[in-house]
Amino acid sequence: MTVLESQPTVNQMALGVRRKATNAIMLSLTGVMTLLALVPLFWIIGYVVYRGGQSLDWAFFTQLPKPLGMEGGGILHALEGTIVMTILAAVFATPPGVLAAFYSAYHPNTPLGVVVRFSTDVLSGVPSIVIGLFGYAVLVVPAGHYSALAGGAALAIVMLPTIVRTTDEMLKMVPHSLREASLALGAPEWKTSLQVIFPAALNGIITGFLLAVARAAGETAPLLFTALGNERYEIGLIIRNGLAQRQSALQIIGRIVDQPVDSLPLTLWKYAQQPYPERIEQSWTIALVLMILVLFLNIIARLWVEARRRRLQG
Amino acid sequence: MFAQFKTLLASPSPAWLKRLYGHGDPIWKLLLILGSVLVAVLIIAIGWMLWNQSADARAEFGWGFLLPTLDARWDPVADSFRAWPFVYGTLVTSLVAILLAVPMSVGVAIFLAELCPSWLRLPLNWMIELLAAIPSVVYGLWGIFVFLPKTVPLVGGVLSKTLGQIPVLSTLFAGPVPQSGASRLGAAFILTIMIMPTITAVTRDVLLSIPNSQREASLALGSTKWEAIWRVLLPYGLSGILGAVLLGLGRALGETMAVTMVIGNSITARPTLLSPGYTMASVIANEFAEAVSKLHSQVLIEIGLVLFFLTLVLNVAARFLVWSVARRTSCEVRL
Lengths: 314, 335
Description:
The complex is a heterodimer of chains A (314) and B (335). Chain A has 314 residues and is mostly helical. Chain A is 78% helix and 0% strand. Chain A is globular. Chain A starts with a helix and ends with a helix. The relative contact order of chain B is 0.14. Chain B has a two-stranded antiparallel ribbon with strand order 1-2. Chain B is mostly helical and 335 residues long. The longest helix of chain B is centred in the C-terminal third of the chain and has 41 residues, at 294-334. At the A-B interface, α2, α4, α5, α6 and α7 of A face α1, α3, α5, α6 and α7 of B.
């Protein structure tokens, strides 16, 4: 009787087959979904390279836009604007970001440490268009005009959460014994932080910085009402004029950052909405340049992290 | 360069620095606190500014500004504004995007966390993250010129011929389908691709944080791998996965450039998914720089305030849900 009972009935065997089939189907479905999820990636990259590559040449980087209807013309103004604003953003965001990360990494359970981590997470979820509105109200309205400075500050807010979070994580990866050894040798807290821990975590911090730069360089929305756009922006001309008028370096830099500028994504957005085929064509080329820039920064940063992790794990 | 930096730090300090030496710690601590306070204050500053700058608009229109209405007036010349078409556009595109993205993302996350061979894991993770790194404007450009004309007329045509004929559902799926693809459905498609990496990454981390004993126990009781995932791991990580979904929803609500490029930017009273629409973020992007009157820009800032508030709530809720899984896990590991 007991032997008979342990024999699987036909019904149970069917159930086993069904369970196995469900298992196989669902597991392979997750694989199919993964493949499907990667289709847009290759489709976008492939198409942008194909369309954008057609009119990519050196003149595209070295000329200002030509009036509509004329052949050629480049994106020098947008390239320079992107560089200026990204540098400004990095200068504004890096010091407070790294300091805040030091605080939250070494005082994680204090109220301020919790607040920092919490507000970093929340800040990274704030829509970038809202950051643009904030930049407009805080920097453009009081100054009375749009400027690269306001655009850079808005981008800095976009960069800040990435810098704080990655720096925090990298600081936690530095072995605690290093810090203890330094403190035990009598070095004060600030010297330990700056001369022992900071260099040890530097690679990781630079990685986070590169990711933040990549994100800021591709952002459009915060610039719509802060940088606005300026097709005649040319740093070389500003510098030549400044030198001719015997202005100091500080004055020249002031002139460079204190006027409306374009950026690559901003120009792409404007060109894509215009009904002229040559502008659409150029917007594909801008997309290619932008994508190469952003993906290149991302891949470099990730390779760097990976190499570091391998070394740490021995 | 770093070697120089190191020697600079190691070289004998000038006199003023030596004097500072004894006072270094309080100064360092002060700097750390200043940096931290700045990060924390930014959130409050953004909220306060938006609240402050939209005071007149809020006084003028009250709550009716946001509520559903049949007469969708948006007339900057007459200073008459109702935000409902934008609120509706944002909600419907985001919700459709979430519906499409969640099964997909959870599937990918399961594959990455549970099934993927280890040599494939890193490249796949990278590729999914690159999908999140592509700038929003590039998605918009590709969407409007390549992706939407291929997909929306096809999918939309099928939807309007089937679901569009059923009485109640026809409000959502009525045709005609624009040949360009610029529609709420098209925006939802682009949003799906854009939020998928966020939901995938968080879900994957949640799955990876579930202790191995859960998997082993389930498999030891005779379940198949899928049953272990479906009956044990997903319920265990459910709150974290919900958190991931909320994060994705927050992204979708605030996404501006790509949506503005593909949704068609038209204020219509027709609620169907297959016609062009408008979202809250898009109307700010399109109109703020050229706002005619003071009230017009105030109204747009009020829309920004609503977006800020919604994403804030979603983010806070999402963090708590994700934390709850991580906290439970660390307790069990200690036991």
